[in-house]
Specification:
Blueprint lengths: L8 H16 L11 H15 L1 H5 L2 H19 L4 E5 L6 H4 L7 E6 L1 H10 L8 E6 L5 H14 L3 E5 L8 H12 L4 E9 L1 H17 L20 E8 H7 L5 H7 L14 E8 L1
Parallel strand pairs: 1-2, 1-4, 2-3, 4-5
Antiparallel strand pairs: 5-7, 6-7
């Protein structure tokens, strides 16, 4: 039997690294990740080549990466002492961004993907202190224990979850939100979300591969960013990925006019939409 195209959720991290590598190769790159190609490896390139829809829409990955970068920069400048990166995957921000040496960057993910990244980055030097914690985030007791320990160790913490929530059920996202909000030193949480309309499109284009990998697309809140309010988090800033890609000059011609339309502030419903949201603990 041949391996499935995407074996597990860790392969999606290799896949996403391909698009960061291609952006890095551009003369006008909006960010540079010199480690992305090595991290993607042959499997990441094979996945990207097999899914042309995502090749054509790689602008969304670039814009999402850019937005998370900008939020990280602003949070650090505002006095955040610790960044907690949930399901960190193959993210290399503490290696590629100019972060203060005093910052503590904590990566939480499955042991296999963290071990793989540590191996590839063995000779690279981070710009700040990096700690890797192997934890299955679906284990509520384990993650709460980690959050408690981190919460006691700093007075101002920010959390990132890039590319994570889409694989969780609604109740799992709510439970995670509560676990983070109960930490009095966790002030901000940066997430990315998609609309039900975009979720349906993603399922049509790659749903079978994600099902085979045991990581189906699940979370697309009808309410949009206000979904998080009952779980202790207030949306304070929402950035459309489409509009951001337009400003960065990465949209194909067919989508440029759409990016100029006024942003919808209500539920997105069947409209394909994705965004990055800065949440603040209530």
């Amino acid at each position: 039997m041949t391996d499935p195209l995407i074996r597990d959720v860790s392969d999606t991290a290799r896949w996403m690294a391909v698009y960061r590598a291609r952006e890095t190769d551009r003369a006008d790159a909006v960010f540079r990740d010199p480690f992305a190609r090595a991290l993607a490896g042959e499997r990441g390139e094979r996945i990207a080549a097999a899914l042309p829809f995502f090749e054509e829409n790689a602008w969304s990955i670039l814009a999402r990466t850019y937005l998370f970068d900008r939020f990280v920069t602003r949070l650090v400048q505002s006095g955040v002492e610790v960044i907690v990166n949930l399901a960190a995957g193959l993210d290399t921000r503490p290696y590629r961004m100019p972060l203060p040496a005093s910052l503590r960057w904590v990566e939480i993910d499955l042991p296999e993907i963290l071990d793989y990244k540590a191996q590839v980055l063995a000779d690279a030097k981070p710009t700040c202190a990096v700690e890797r914690i192997p934890v299955d985030l679906s284990n509520g007791d384990a993650r709460r224990g980690v959050f408690d320990r981190i919460g006691r160790s700093a007075s101002r913490v920010a959390v990132l979850s890039e590319g994570l929530l889409i694989y969780l059920m609604v109740n799992e996202v709510g439970s995670l939100g509560w676990d983070l909000a109960r930490q009095p030193t966790f002030y901000h949480w940066v997430v990315d979300i998609v609309s039900p309309g975009l979720m349906q499109m993603l399922k049509e284009r790659a749903g079978e591969y994600m099902m085979d990998a045991g990581a189906p697309f699940l979370f697309a809140p009808y309410e949009g960013p206000p979904f998080f309010a009952p779980y202790g988090w207030t949306p304070v800033e929402v950035k459309s990925i489409l509009k951001t890609a337009g400003k960065l000059g990465r949209l194909p011609l067919a989508l440029r006019m759409m990016a100029m339309l006024p942003e919808s502030t209500g539920p997105q419903g069947s409209r394909p939409w994705s965004g990055v949201v800065l949440l603040q603990r209530r």
